[in-house]
């Protein structure tokens, strides 16, 4: 009888361990048995993105996510129309790129002076303008400067809920790690900087993410050979070649494509 009781107790403990592990599982079965996901994203609608960047991506058949400000799109309208036709994802990066007024260049559009209503109105207007300019309505968003607040002091509020309502995802900036696919908040996706880096600096990040099945969202600005806030074209070539090597098990896709896949997976579960 004592032996039987021990067996039953052991069985119950084993089942509890298995159940707890299943509850804590944050990995996902990626398409085609890939081991991780990678998204390339670029902010602001910089001119170099369509002057040089999209041509490189198209050469490799890679689709990226571009978070744009309408006024920037107007400066290279035909280039952005071509980017859309090539299948690149266009995201919303706000109407006026508001950040904290601690940045002198943002003093006249400081988040400290915004309300949730003003932010919502400008985001909707930005979507309307982007649709009018290049024929697509953005479904994804990136926080300017990676900042998610409006107001100041006791009146400070997060506008993350506004993003969650209006968009399928919101990407941060200067994050310290990748996204856990079945745990992450789609309205607060981590975005890791690739500006100014060489491939040897990025490769270890991809290797660690591959071991745990994570989703890396890389974020950049200019797409050129050199300069400030620039994702170097030579680095991109190395990165893409690495990601497209089947041996490395990387699913390379736009932010909206990956987030949609994860949401569908969650729904099926």
Descriptive account of the structure:
With 269 residues, the chain is of the alpha/beta class. Residues 17-25 have low confidence and may be disordered. The strands form 4 sheets. Strands 1, 2, 3, 8, 9 and 12 form a 6-stranded parallel β-sheet that branches. Strands 4-7 form a two-stranded parallel ribbon. Strands 5-6 form a two-stranded antiparallel sheet. 44% of the residues lie in helices and 16% in strands.
Query: What number is the mean pLDDT?
Result: 93
What's the shape? globular
H/I helix tally? 9
The helix content, as a percent range, equals 40-55%
Number of domains: 1
CATH topology: TIM Barrel
From the N-terminal CA to the C-terminal CA, the straight-line distance is: 40 Å
SSE diagram, text form:
Elements (H helix, E strand, L loop, with lengths): L1 H23 L11 E9 L2 H14 L4 E4 L1 H6 L1 H9 L3 E4 L23 H19 L5 E3 L6 E2 L6 E2 L1 H7 L2 E3 L20 E2 L5 H14 L2 E6 L1 E3 L5 E3 H12 L5 E3 L2 H14 L1
Parallel strand pairs: 1-2, 1-9, 1-12, 2-3, 4-7, 8-9, 10-11
Antiparallel strand pairs: 5-6
Organism: Rhodocytophaga rosea
GO molecular function: hydrolase activity, acting on carbon-nitrogen (but not peptide) bonds
Keywords: Signal
């Amino acid at each position: 009888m004592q032996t039987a009781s021990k067996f039953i107790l052991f069985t119950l403990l084993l089942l509890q361990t298995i159940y707890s592990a299943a509850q804590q599982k944050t990995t996902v079965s990626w398409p085609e048995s890939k081991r991780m996901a990678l998204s390339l994203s670029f902010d602001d609608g910089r001119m170099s993105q369509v002057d040089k960047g999209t041509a490189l991506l198209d050469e490799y058949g890679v689709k990226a996510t571009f978070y744009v400000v309408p006024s920037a799109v107007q400066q290279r309208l035909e280039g952005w129309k071509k980017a859309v036709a090539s299948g690149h994802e266009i995201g919303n990066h706000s109407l006026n790129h508001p950040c904290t007024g601690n940045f002198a260049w943002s003093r006249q559009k400081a988040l400290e002076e915004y309300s949730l209503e003003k932010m919502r109105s400008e985001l909707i207007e930005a979507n309307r303008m982007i649709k009018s300019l290049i024929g697509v309505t953005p479904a994804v968003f990136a926080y300017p400067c990676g900042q998610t607040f409006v107001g100041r002091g006791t009146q400070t509020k997060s506008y993350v809920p506004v993003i969650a309502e209006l968009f399928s995802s919101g990407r941060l900036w200067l994050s310290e790690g990748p996204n856990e696919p079945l745990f992450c908040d789609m309205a607060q996706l981590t975005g890791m900087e690739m500006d100014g880096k060489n491939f040897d600096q990025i490769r270890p990040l991809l290797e660690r993410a591959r071991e745990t099945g994570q989703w890396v969202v890389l974020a950049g600005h200019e797409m050129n050979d050199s300069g400030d806030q620039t994702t170097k074209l030579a680095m991109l070539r190395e990165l893409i070649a690495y990601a497209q090597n089947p041996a490395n098990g990387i699913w390379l896709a736009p932010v909206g494509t990956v987030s949609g896949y994860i949401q569908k997976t969650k729904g099926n579960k």
